[in-house]
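Methods: example folding runs. The two proteins below were folded one after another, and each record is reproduced exactly as written to the output file, sequence line first and structure-token line second.
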Amino acid sequence: MTAGSEALARGREHWQARLLGVQSMIVDEWSTDESPCEIFWKPSTLSQRDKIFKYIAENSLEGLAESIVQRVLDADGKKMFTQIHKKELMTRQDPDVLIRIVSAMNEDEAVTIEEARKNSE
């Protein structure tokens, strides 16, 4: 096994361990008295970040909706939203709620949206 292959194997092990660290939050505005809306997320992949950062490079807030589509999971670990939902996220949801969700998801990320935006200028 080459040094590169060994490094990649250790990197995969590290990544798999990080993926076990699922985080969550309750979104009060999406909850009812009988059913709280808890959303979940894992660390973002480079592929997800690429899709999100394309909007950031354009200074587009659509990146917030894309972050939610790419990363928010349900209790079973399945994506809660698809690209079909992005228009509603952009036009029929409280932007402050979406910002709060994305901010919570980015608290543990090495590169935040704000840092990426500064680096793209």
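Second run, written to the same file directly after the first:
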Amino acid sequence: MQYKFIRSIQFFLIFCLCVFTAVKSNACLEDKIYIKAYSGVVVFSLELAKTLSEKQKGLMGRQKLNERSGMLFLYDKPHQVAFWMKNTIIPLDIIFISSSGRISYIHHNAKPFSTKSISGGLDVRAVLEINGGMSKLEGIRVGDTVRHPFFSHFDPIWPCDFKD
């Protein structure tokens, strides 16, 4: 009985070490974004939209988006950005992010196929699209901060630690 208890503790400690190492090593990868939300840190796997063509297509025509996934649109300089949902099949939360990595605006549950313009303000450096309703479900709000290598060039509020 005592042997099983000791093995259980060993297994638990090894598991915790593996989880901690995995989280720490993924802290600043291009295909992940971390959001410091009211409920804690939320992680999404990413596709990046860097080129004009990738930005124009976005998530149009997609039948679904995995629950913990999103598309991050990156811009060379801060400016006014507007999105629409033409040819987009799934509802999306559209999260507008400033150069410092602060969420400046969230448009919740953008309506599929809508041609209504959705603007995020004047100082937008990146936009994150995730499944509609996910930001409310996870407690993500305006003012929360994100962590991603892209923001490292702009004096971010929550910088990457490249020593990880």
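Comment on the second run: The two ends are 39 Å apart (CA to CA).
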